[in-house]
From TrEMBL:
<feature type="domain" description="Luciferase-like">
    <location>
        <begin position="1"/>
        <end position="294"/>
    </location>
</feature>
<protein>
    <submittedName>
        <fullName>F420-dependent oxidoreductase</fullName>
    </submittedName>
</protein>
<dbReference type="InterPro" id="IPR050564">
    <property type="entry name" value="F420-G6PD/mer"/>
</dbReference>
<keyword id="KW-0560">Oxidoreductase</keyword>
<dbReference type="InterPro" id="IPR036661">
    <property type="entry name" value="Luciferase-like_sf"/>
</dbReference>
<dbReference type="InterPro" id="IPR022526">
    <property type="entry name" value="F420_Rv3093c"/>
</dbReference>
<dbReference type="InterPro" id="IPR011251">
    <property type="entry name" value="Luciferase-like_dom"/>
</dbReference>
<dbReference type="Pfam" id="PF00296">
    <property type="entry name" value="Bac_luciferase"/>
</dbReference>
């Protein structure tokens, strides 16, 4: 199993400087890649540049960036700019994000998200590999002055159309907060889509919340990251089948995150994450590998464990 580290995933109450602290630790411990997620606080490409400037070796992937907010050229330019100022390869991850972010934060309509993802991935599969002297986009009078950023193209996918997009254009497909059973099902869909597209299957990665020997604060942080999925189709069924139907119903009624965290037991975290003592976490890693996952992107709990040091140290590459 390959491991990478997510410096920042979704919005929570952690310190704004925590992502750079996580990235520095990941670099020191020998992880090969750090993900710089995008949200209401951090711009993914600025954070990618900050991580690249602060670290020595680790590669960086920016995103997933929401395709209804940024056009393909803006995404390619951001990645190339970050790569140029850091001297480090920078990858790009694409996603459709949520209506709450696209419309509620950016004020842009989240329309045709699957089609927008396909159009953006198709364009970026070429733009990210552009050469100096070529048009910045096909047909433009402006020429490229920066080389391509050198990192992989990742597509975050869950639905069938997004999986088809990943299979047709991406180097890697990304899942988020999934169980081994979901990995098995989605891996089969990816295999079939790649065969239909006539391409080698992209590698399959998943962002998974992780906390080795978690204290109460770390566990609450993990459960808080899960709470937002209790109303999402495809996830709510997994939690209901795992025995957490009461929490799913509570979420459907509009309960806030704090209420949902109190309602969720530890077992909810172990359903879609790596939580527990080191032996239990390693056994769960084996479950994900057997299900067909190629890479686990660790989203370390940092509450009560600055930088996620306990977890990242326990799982560091051999």
């Amino acid at each position: 199993m390959d491991f990478s580290v997510v410096a920042v995933a979704r919005e929570d109450d952690s310190a704004v400087e925590e992502p750079v602290r996580v990235a520095l630790l990941a670099d020191r411990l020998g992880y090969r890649e750090v993900w710089a997620g995008e949200g209401p606080t951090w711009d993914a490409f600025v954070l990618a540049a900050a991580v690249g400037a602060a670290t020595e070796r680790v590669a960086v992937t920016a995103g997933p960036v929401p395709v209804n907010v940024r056009d393909p050229y803006t995404i390619a330019r951001g990645a190339a700019s970050a790569a140029a100022v850091t001297g480090r390869a920078v990858g790009v991850a694409l996603g459709t994000s949520s209506k709450r972010v696209v419309e509620g934060v950016h004020g842009r309509p989240r329309v045709r998200p699957a089609a927008a993802l396909e159009e953006s991935a198709a364009a970026l599969s070429g733009l990210l590999r552009g050469r100096v002297g070529e048009p910045v986009v096909p047909g433009s009078v402006f020429t490229r002055r920066l080389p391509g950023p050198g990192g992989p193209l990742t597509v975050a996918a869950f639905g069938d159309r997004a999986i088809a997009t990943a299979a047709a254009h991406a180097d890697r497909m990304l899942l988020d907060v999934v169980s081994p059973a979901q990995v098995r099902e989605l891996r089969a869909k990816l295999d079939a889509a790649a065969e239909k597209a006539g391409r080698t299957r992209p590698t399959l990665a998943a962002w998974l919340p992780a906390a080795v020997d978690p204290g109460p604060a770390s566990l609450a942080q993990v459960l808080g990251s899960i709470a937002g999925y209790l109303t999402v189709p495809g996830y709510r069924e997994v939690f209901a089948e795992a025995g957490f139907a009461a929490a799913v119903e509570l979420a459907a009624s509009g309960a806030d995150r704090a209420t949902l965290v109190r309602a969720l037991p530890l077992e909810a975290a172990t359903t879609v994450g790596l939580v527990g003592d080191l032996a239990a976490v390693r056994a769960r890693v084996d479950d994900y590998a057997e299900a067909g996952l190629d890479e686990i992107a660790l989203v370390p709990a940092t509450a009560g464990d600055p930088g996620g040091e306990r977890t990242l140290t326990a799982l560091r590459p051999a």
